[in-house]
Automatic annotation (TrEMBL):
Pfam families: DUF6594. It comes from the Eukaryota. This is DUF6594 domain-containing protein. It comes from Cercospora beticola (Sugarbeet leaf spot fungus). The lineage of its organism: Eukaryota, Fungi, Dikarya, Ascomycota, Pezizomycotina. Coiled coil: none annotated.
Length: 360
């Protein structure tokens, strides 16, 4: 009779595996769990990475306005630190806001027009009249000088002690005459010295340039600000002097201003080379006022580029080995002449200074 199967003879199961209630082995469950964990880990990491990207984008979005605000705040602060007269569109609120057209016609408007630019500040020297007055005072002094010499000669013949003793100078009839004569000479000398000083001061003023004198005459011919008989004052060009000191590049400044005036883009030119007050001075389209400081900076840039070009251009040519010696000598001669010419025309250098700069 067969033996009953013992409990130890239950179906063989691997010692490393344990059968669960649902018939699955623990290894399968662990593998599935690990796969689930990996999937969840990837999902979590993807969500976390997406979340971090969103946070970064949000933080960048939130930072952008702050950066812009900081820049705006910095620019406004920096703009507040800039002196008002440095700003291109600044107009002094305390200045006289009247334009040229607001002045009454005649001498008031003409005086305002002459005052709007230093190039228009000129006047007649009246050299002929000054010389006439000076010659007349000189003749008066000559007559008094002759009288005093005759008086001294008479005193010498009569052995008058007034020549050697000042206390005896004004005594007697002859003494009164001598005293009165000396007083007249003193008064005439004072008048003569005054006219001599005035002639010297007027003669030391620089002659008005042809360009500035022509500008004034053109304004008078076009607008007729004064009566015809008053305009005759301006008909003697050789007698006009400038009231503003001419600096070293004044002639070159005028040349640059003339070139800027001929350019077709008037508004652009005035924006860069005229300040806001000058643009508001007049509504006349033919009146061009330039800021001297801006013109001076522009000319300095031109002079710097010109000087560098005249000095380096011959060096570049001389370093070319294929050129002959004759060509190199001609290049040196030409650029030396151009350098001396530019130095003479663009500055008020004296002959000795031009010679020294060329030799160097």
């Amino acid at each position: 009779m067969p033996k009953p199967q013992s409990r130890s003879e239950s179906p063989s199961v691997s010692p490393t595996s344990t059968v669960l209630g649902n018939g699955q082995e623990p290894s399968a469950v662990i593998g599935a769990a690990s796969e689930h964990d990996v999937t969840s880990t990837h999902t979590t990491s993807s969500h976390s990475s997406q979340g971090s990207v969103d946070l970064e984008s949000q933080s960048a979005t939130t930072r952008r306005p702050s950066v812009i605000n900081v820049l705006r705040k910095f620019s406004s602060t920096f703009s507040d630190q800039i002196p008002p007269h440095w700003k291109p569109n600044h107009i002094n609120e305390k200045r006289d806001t009247r334009s040229l057209e607001d002045y009454p016609k005649g001498f008031p408007r003409f005086a305002a027009w002459m005052n709007c630019d230093e190039n228009f500040l000129m006047t007649r020297r009246y050299g002929w009249l000054h010389n006439r007055v000076m010659l007349y005072r000189q003749s008066e002094l000559r007559q008094l000088e002759i009288k005093l010499q005759l008086c001294d000669e008479g005193d010498e013949e009569s052995k008058d002690p007034a020549l050697v003793d000042h206390r005896m100078f004004a005594r007697g009839d002859s003494g009164e005459y001598r005293k009165e004569l000396i007083q007249q000479i003193d008064e005439k000398l004072e008048q003569y010295d005054s006219i001599v000083r005035r002639v010297k001061e007027m003669s030391s003023l620089p002659k008005a340039t042809r360009r500035n004198y022509t500008s004034v005459c053109n304004h008078i011919d076009k607008h007729a600000p004064i009566a015809q008989r008053e305009q005759d004052v301006f008909m003697n060009d050789s007698d006009f002097v400038a009231l503003v000191e001419q600096h070293e590049t004044k002639s070159f400044d005028g040349f640059v201003e003339d070139i800027l005036t001929l350019l077709p883009c008037k508004r652009v030119t005035q924006f860069f080379f005229s300040n806001a007050e000058q643009r508001a001075t007049s509504t006349d389209e033919n009146l061009f006022l330039y800021d001297k400081r801006r013109i001076d900076v522009f000319i300095r840039l031109i002079m710097t580029c010109l000087a560098v070009g005249l000095l380096l251009a011959p060096v570049v040519v001389l370093f070319r080995e294929q050129d002959s010696g004759t060509v190199k000598i001609v290049v040196i001669l030409v650029f030396t002449l151009f350098f001396s010419l530019a130095l003479s025309l663009a500055t008020r250098a004296r002959r000795a200074e031009v010679f020294a700069a060329t030799a160097a």
